[in-house]
Design goal:
This protein is mainly β. It has two domains: 1-31, no CATH class; 41-127, Deoxyuridine 5'-Triphosphate Nucleotidohydrolase, Chain A. It is built from one helix and 13 strands, in the order αβββββββββββββ. It has a six-stranded antiparallel beta sheet, with no helix packed on it. The longest helix is centred in the first third of the chain and has 6 residues, at 4-9.
């Protein structure tokens, strides 16, 4: 499981029965992945980025919405990225992100021995 060391270091409790996690005394409800191609939010890369070889970096993304009718219910909501392969050797790590539109930091892993250039607007993940 990606980020297991982070979960342990931050004493996160994951309650599978209630579908929620407990982090810093706050409960966050988890929801199941929807079927089909429907999505509410996507994280796309905010600017051209070089990801160094054998590195993990946080990159700036912005969120785009799947429906103009979608309005965030409250500012306390958090979302998470799906673990996604962008290119060979370049993966988006599952990342908890805040409920905002710009400068949403998402962790990316480059497992190759060469830097990888990713272009602005590249789809990083559904949230």
């Amino acid at each position: 499981m990606l980020w297991i060391d982070w979960l342990q270091a931050n004493a996160v409790t994951w309650d599978f029965v209630r579908s929620e996690i407990l982090l810093n005394g706050q409960r966050f409800k988890l929801t199941a992945k929807r079927q089909g191609n429907r999505w509410w939010r996507r994280a796309v890369l905010a600017e051209d980025t070089d990801v160094p070889a054998h590195a993990q970096v946080d990159v700036s993304t912005k969120l785009v919405y799947g429906s103009v009718d979608f309005v965030p219910r409250n500012q306390q909501e958090v979302w998470d990225t799906e673990s996604t392969r962008i290119k060979n050797g370049l993966m988006v790590a599952r990342t908890i992100v805040p409920n905002k539109v710009d400068n949403v930091l998402v962790s990316v892993l480059n497992t190759t021995s060469a830097p990888v250039v990713v272009s602005k607007g590249t789809l990083f993940s559904n949230l």
